[in-house]
Amino acid sequence: MKYLVQIIRVLVGCLFIFSGVVKAIDPLGTSYKMHDYFSAFAATGWPAFWHMMDTFSISISVIMIVLEMIAGFALLIGWSNRFTVWLLFLMTLFFTVLTGFTYLSGFCPNALFAFFSVALVTLIIVTACKWHTTHGKKIAAFTALVLLVYVGLIAGTDNLLTCAFDKTKMKVTDCGCFGDFIKLQPYQTFWKDIVLDVLIFILVIGVAQIQPLFKNRTTTLLTVCFAVISLLFSFSNYLWGLPIVDFRPYKIGNNIRELRVAQKPAITDFVFIYKNTKTQQEKEFKMDELGNITDEYEFVDRKEKILDPGIPAKIDGFFISDTDNDLTDSLLSDPDYSFMVVAYHLSETDLEVFKRSIVPLSNKVQQAGFAFYCVYGADMNADPLRHELQAAFPFYTSDETPLKTIVRSNPGLVLLKNGVVVNMWHKYDIPSFETLQTNYLSK
Questions:
Q1: What is 122-166 written as a DSSP string?
Q2: Which of 21, 146, 412, 430 has the smallest number of Cβ neighbours within 10 A?
Q3: 175 and 57, same structural domain?
Q4: Could you read off the pLDDT of 181-190 as tens digits, one per residue?
């Protein structure tokens, strides 16, 4: 037991630090994922509460990220073992609920599923609390029995999950557990958290085997220092500048125009669904099989079936348009340098940055003969703001989601050449025209 606990201690501690660091590189990306969850929760009930929570999504994101890193570090050095292990246990159960909501919503779970899930999580927590008591083993046996019933109901009947898995039914398609660094399928993240639950439960019952690496005062000092560094690192990647590492498809050096094209087109075909009037069973027929249908079948539906998903484009849903035309290809095909200001929420953008940096820069850039334009998420009419700023450059619209992905700043500036991202800047780092001319435009 002693050696098992030490192995799990190192594995879990390193995993939590790694998970926290890759998200701390891009805290805004995690906050956008929290926004997706809050929107999905709002659709199921208590919309006012979840919309209120959404206003704190970036704060919640940073707190969660920093807690992950602190908990992993504290476990490794042995600071306040019982508190740390329980914090990890509750955090993992919380993550399991989120990833379960992500994945299992594709199965159409009903109210009974929600009841069993809450009951099971409660029993697991009670078991962990009571493990060392006289009745701990009996409680654990009861929890195991409930778990078996729960799994049996899911696997053997339609009592809890009332339809076959359909990816399009999932409320949130990606949990963002490792940010944009590692993209896991929803089922992979769910089962990963189930395994973590088991491992950390072993740490809970074997917490006495965890010994601190240093004296109490030293471990406390190290933990506090690590917490401060983690917090500052998170701030540096969104509040004061862009992420130190870019894992997104719009990173510097990538060709947006090329990445919008599927590497291998999907192959689809239409299938026709007919129901046997005698047996009430439904059957799918291909186009060339329609002539074989007998009178005992009646038409139900027609749907498109994916025969080969192919390899989709790495950039999907990004477009630039004015009121009448799609300008994406023409703007991304500019053989010369062009400047794109990105403001995914124009109503919430930093106007002082526009007045102080962007508008003066645009005047010089346009006088030098280079294209300069702003792309925003169509959340408002840009004309009044454009007149207020006395901006001579055009404002185009796009979808909010890709704009959030392009640059983690509102506003941010992107330098393009023939569709290639040459550089990008945070709103507090907008360069002067002279700097641009020296480093780019004169070359």
A1: HHHHHHHHHTTSTTHHHHHHHHHHHHHHHHHHHHH-SSSB-S---
A2: 146
A3: yes
A4: 788 888 888 8
pLDDT under 50 in the chain at which residues?
none
The answer to whether 38 and 58 have CB atoms below 8 angstroms apart is no
CB 431 within 8 A of CB 412: no
33 shares its domain with 93: yes
Q: pTM here?
A: 0.83
Instruction: Please name which of 120, 125, 190 lies closest in space to residue 151, comparing C-alpha atoms.
Output: 120
Query: How many Å is the maximal CA-CA distance in the chain?
Result: 83
Residues 66 and 205 in one domain: yes
Please check whether residue 298 lies inside any domain of the structure: yes
- Which of 318, 336, 359, 352 lies closest to 416 in space, CA to CA? 336
Domain count of the fold of the chain: 3
Q: Examine residue 93 and state whether it is found in any structural domain, yes or no.
A: yes
Q: Are 30 and 63 in contact (CB under 8 A)?
A: no
Contact 162, 108 (CB under 8 A): yes
Q: In one letter, which amino acid is 231?
A: L
Q: HSE-up of 21 (CA within 13 Å, CB side)? A: 11
Residues 6+ away with beta carbon under 8 Å from 333: 257, 418, 419
- pLDDT, position 14: 96
* Residue span of the structural domain in which 296 resides: 267-308
